[in-house]
Write a structure and sequence with these properties.
2 copies of one chain form a homodimer.
Chain A lengths: L18 E6 L11 E6 L4 E6 L7 H12 L5 E8 L5 H19 L6 E8 L6 H13 L6 H7 L8 E9 L2 E10 L12 E6 L5 H14 L15 E6 L16 H21 L7 E9 L2 H13 L1 H8 L5 H11 L9 E4 L2 E5 L2 E2 L5 H8 L3 E7 L5 E8 L3 H8 L4
Parallel strand pairs in A: 4-5, 8-9, 10-14
Antiparallel strand pairs in A: 1-2, 2-4, 3-9, 6-7, 7-8, 10-15, 11-12, 11-14, 12-13
Helix pairs in contact in A: 1-2, 2-3, 5-6, 7-9
Protein name (chains A, B): Arginine biosynthesis bifunctional protein ArgJ
Pathway (chains A, B): Amino-acid biosynthesis; L-arginine biosynthesis; L-ornithine and N-acetyl-L-glutamate from L-glutamate and N(2)-acetyl-L-ornithine (cyclic): step 1/1; Amino-acid biosynthesis; L-arginine biosynthesis; N(2)-acetyl-L-ornithine from L-glutamate: step 1/4
Pfam families (chains A, B): ArgJ (PF01960)
Chain lengths: 408, 408
C-alpha cells in the first residue's frame, strides 16, 4: 500500500562509528520476526531525546526521561515492538526498569545508562520475561553495519522499513548521519514521531545536541500526521558518538555546524516523508505548503487542519478535486481570516483565487492534477511571512480495514 | 445505514400555529425531489439564530446575520439543498439577496425580512434562476401541517429525514415545539448544526429567545460531531410565533420558563442524536459522557477528542474494545492530566480503573458491550465537577465510500 516507498538498500544505510546493533525474536506477538532491537553505544556517546506530550505517556517514556535527566552517560537503547507498555501503572514502570537492568547486566553498565522504548498495543502488560530471554541473542549479534535490519525490527503496522543515511564533510573529515523511524498510525507527533533514532559519529557538544533534537523534530517529525492522534509512546532520540576526527561542534560558529544540522534535518525529513508514504492505508502522499501566515503557529495550524480533515483525506483518496473541503478546512483553522486573501494551488493549478473559485480553473485541470500518487497543495493566506510544509496521506478503505482489524 | 432511525411519523410532528411550509423542485442537482423549502412566518414572529464560526461563512449565512441585525421582523425563511453558495464572493451575496427579493415579492414583504439558507456543494455558483422559478409553486403549497415534508426537503447526504415535536403546558395553555434538522457530514457544529430550525407558538420575549438560541445550541447541536469538520453553512434558528394564549415569557420567573426551555433543549437534543444516528456511513451511535472535569470546556474537550479520533471511531466500527485508543484520546485532550484519576466505563463495564486496565475486566465483557448498535462511554477524570455528553458515530467503509464519491 505504501506510496512509492521501497525498503532501504542495506548498502546505502551507512554504519555509524561507535554504534552496534543486535536483534532477537522475543515473540511478544505471534510474529515470526525480530521484535527486539538493542543498540550499544560507545562510551562518550551523547544523547538527547524528545517525547510525547500525551498525559498517558508510556512507562518506557517516563523511564527514558528519568535516565536522560541523570546525565550518567547512556550506553544502550532497547526497543520492543508489539506491546506499548502504556497504561500499565507501577507494574509497567517496573517492567521497563527490569528490561534496563537485564540490558545493563549483559552489557556491563548501570540500568540507568539504558533507555527503553516500546511500541504496540496499549494497556496490556509487557511480557518482560520474553524480552529478558531474547536479549542474550541480541547481544550475541551486535554489529555496526545493521541499520536496515534495525529499521525492520521496530516496525508495527509499518509495511516497509524506513532508514536514511547521509555523509557530510566537516573540516575535511567525513561523518555519517543515519536514521531509522517507524510509524504509521496513532500518528501526529507532538515533539517526536512514534519511534525515531538519528545517529551520527560527529562530535557535538551536549547543549548543541539538546537544541538540535528539538529543532530537527520541529522541522520533520512534528510536521507529519497520519490521523491526528498523538501516540502515548512517541520518542525521538538523537545520538552523537563523537568518533569523527574533527573539532567538536560547540556553537553556531563551529566549522560544519550548519552543514551537519542541515544533514540531520534532511535525513529526519526524509524519514518523516517515508512515514507519510507508509501511513495506514495510504494510496497518496500529500504535501501541504502554507505561505503568508501571520506566524509559524498559524502556518502549522492551517497545514494540520487540512491534513486532519477526513473529508479532505477521503477526497484525495478519490482523486476528487473537492475544493470546498479545502476552503472549509482553512476557514476552520483561522476563523478571523480575511477570505479574500486566500489562494490555493493543487500542484501548479490555481484553483482558489482570492477567496473564490479561480476563473481559469476547469474540472479537467483538477482531475488531472489529482490523479498522481503524489500531490501538493499550496495555500497562500496573505497575512504575513510565515510558512511551513506538512506531510500526510489520504484515507482509504484500507485505513478503516487496518484499524478495524488491528487487534485481531 | 442510519442507526435505529426511522423517518418521522407526520402525525407526530405537530404544526406550529403561525408557521406555514411550502416546497418545490428547483432541480439544483439531478435529484427528482423537493430541494427548496419555504417557511412563511406570521407577523410578530420572533427569530434568533446562531451561525458557523468558519471564516468562509457562506453567502446566505452573511445575509442572515445582516437581516437579523436589522430587527425589521423576519417574515420568511427560504432553504435550498444541493448548493451551499459558499466561496462565491460578491456574486454569491447577490444570489442570496436575489433569492430574498423573489420571496419578498411573492409574500409581499421586504427582502430584508427574509432569511436565506443553502446547503450542498461549496465553491459553485447558486443557480438562482432555478430557485426563483420554483418559488411560486412553493408559495402555492403553503400549509401549516407539513413539517415532516420540510425535514425531507432540506436533506443532502442525510438518509432519513429528522423532525421532532413536543407539547408543553404553560399556565394551562398547550404550546407546541417542533424542530427539523439536517446533517450529516462536515459536521462538528460550532454554535449550530448545518441546518436546524426549532419553532414554537409560545410567546417569548426577544431577549429570552436570544439567550435560549445559544443555550439550546450548546446543549444539543454543539455536542454532536460526525467528522470534526465545521461546515461553512451551519445555521440554527429558533422561531417563536407568539400565537399561544399565555402570558409572554419575559424572564426566569415567568410561568413556563423552565418547562419550555427544557422542551426546546429536549427537542434539539433529540434532533442532534438523530444527526449522529445518520452520520455518514454510521453503523453505531456512540454516547460519550465525561464527568469530573475541571470545567465545562475541559469536559467538552475530552468528549470531542474521543469523538474525533479516527482510531477510536474505527475500533467502534469493528466492535473492538480497543481501550488503548480511548486513553490515548483522553491523554491528548488534557496533557497535564493525572492519569491515576482516570476511570472509563464501556456501557456498565469498568474497563479502565484509576489509569490502568481494570483488574475485573475481561475481553469477553468488552466484546459483549461493544456488540450493540448503541454504545456508551463514560470517562471519570476526578479533577472537578463539570460534566457533559457528546454524541457521535463510528467510521465505516461506507464513510470513505460516501465521501470519496460525494461529487460523482
Amino acid at each position: 500500500m505504501a506510496v512509492n516507498l521501497l525498503p532501504p538498500d542495506p548498502a546505502a544505510v551507512f554504519p555509524v562509528a561507535g554504534i552496534e546493533l543486535g536483534f532477537a525474536k522475543a515473540r511478544i506477538k505471534k510474529w515470526d520476526r525480530h521484535d527486539v532491537m538493542l543498540m550499544r553505544l560507545a562510551p562518550g556517546t551523547r544523547v538527547a531525546g524528545v517525547f510525547t506530550q500525551n498525559a498517558f505517556a508510556a512507562a518506557p517514556v517516563q523511564v527514558c526521561r528519568e535516565h536522560l535527566k541523570r546525565g550518567d552517560g547512556i550506553r544502550a537503547l532497547v526497543v520492543n515492538a508489539g506491546n506499548a507498555n502504556c497504561g500499565t501503572g507501577e507494574q509497567g514502570l517496573a517492567a521497563a526498569r527490569d528490561t534496563c537492568r537485564a540490558v545493563g547486566e549483559l552489557l556491563q553498565c548501570a540500568p540507568e545508562q539504558v533507555l527503553p522504548f516500546s511500541t504496540g498495543v496499549i494497556l496490556e502488560h509487557l511480557p518482560v520475561d520474553k524480552i529478558r530471554g531474547a536479549l542474550p541473542a541480541a547481544v550475541g549479534e551486535l554489529k555496526e553495519n545493521a541499520w536496515a535490519t534495525a529499521a525492520a525490527a521496530i516496525m508495527t503496522t509499518d509495511t516497509v522499513a524506513k532508514a536514511v543515511s547521509e555523509r557530510v564533510e566537516i573540516d575535511g573529515v567525513t561523518v555519517t548521519v543515519t536514521g531509522i523511524a517507524k510509524g504509521v498510525g496513532m500518528l501526529q507527533p507532538n515533539m517526536a514521531t512514534m519511534l525515531a533514532y538519528l545517529a551520527t559519529d560527529a562530535k557535538i557538544a551536549q547543549p548543541v545536541l539538546d537544541r538540535w533534537v528539538k529543532e530537527v523534530a520541529d522541522a520533520s517529525f512534528n510536521r507529519v500526521t497520519i490521523d491526528g492522534d498523538t501516540s502515548t509512546n512517541d520518542s525521538f532520540v538523537l545520538l552523537a558518538t563523537g568518533k569523527g576526527a574533527h573539532a567538536e561542534i560547540r556553537d553556531e560558529s563551529s566549522p560544519g555546524h550548519d552543514r551537519l544540522r542541515a544533514a540531520l534535518i534532511a535525513v529526519a525529513q526524509e524519514l518523516a516523508i517515508k512515514i507519510a508514504r507508509d501511513g495506514e492505508g495510504a494510496t497518496k502522499l500529500i504535501t501541504i505548503e502554507v505561505e503568508g501566515a501571520k506566524d509559524a503557529d498559524e502556518a502549522h495550524r492551517v497545514g494540520k487542519f487540512i491534513a486532519h480533515s477526513p473529508l479532505v483525506k477521503t477526497a484525495f483518496f478519490a482523486s476528487d478535486p473537492n475544493l470546498g473541503r479545502l476552503i472549509m478546512a482553512v476557514g476552520n483553522a483561522v476563523p478571523e481570516l480575511n477570505t479574500a486573501g486566500v489562494s490555493i494551488w493543487l500542484g501548479d493549478v490555481l484553483v482558489v483565487d482570492r477567496g473564490g473559485r479561480a476563473a481559469s480553473y476547469t474540472e479537467d485541470q483538477g482531475a488531472a492534477v489529482m490523479k498522481p500518487e503524489e500531490i501538493s497543495v499550496k495555500v497562500m493566506l496573505s497575512r504575513g511571512n510565515a510558512r511551513t510544509t506538512v506531510w500526510t496521506c489520504d484515507y482509504s478503505y484500507d485505513y478503516v480495514k487496518i484499524n478495524a482489524e488491528y487487534r485481531t
